[in-house]
Amino acid sequence: MDFLTTVLLLIVGAGGGVAFANFLRNRSGVTDVRHESTLLLERIEKVFKVVMAEGYFSEIYNYQDQKKILYLLNDPKKAMVIAKSKVLVGFDFAKVRFRASDTGDKKLIIESFPEPEVLSIDTDYKFYDIQAGILNHFSGADYTQILDEAKQAMNDRALQSDLPKIANNQIQYMMYQLASSMGWQLQLPEAEQRQLDVLKERAEEKIKEQKQLSSGQ
């Protein structure tokens, strides 16, 4: 056996060994998948935010981008995103301005109270019907823009819903109950005070109705 024949046999044997190893690995269904991630903590902030309402939304967002080739032919790309979100609405108590009454009585005067805001949006996105153009392809920036716009649309829907109103009613009644349990009177700004008075009247009516039902039984 000459040198060239020996080399050829070694190459064929090595190739056969690799092919056989790949065959066995494919038959066994074992794949070598590796994931790497790096977590960076940028900063920690102290906050006093209270969630008072929670809502669930679904949104279908259609994205289209028209691009002309040589200013003549349209080369569109489009995608459809279905987003399901859990939205938490509440208040940032760092924006509350209050003081105790100067008269010496136990009265807490709320001078300024913030509007309800979206505190967090937890969204699950799913892409459907992704169609790229001939030269107008999707990039990482395109996907980021689509998700940002879908999230903003969800934020707007939440603020236009009944969640802010529910959060307002919840926080006012909670503050009234908390102040009453400590023997304090709560004075809100004029508009909020009228809403609180309405809530107090409704609460008192419910208590009376429950007492009447209990006495009737």
TrEMBL record:
Domain of life: Bacteria
Pfam families named in the record: DUF4230
InterPro entries: DUF4230 (IPR025324)
Name of the featured protein: DUF4230 domain-containing protein
Organism: Spirosoma aureum
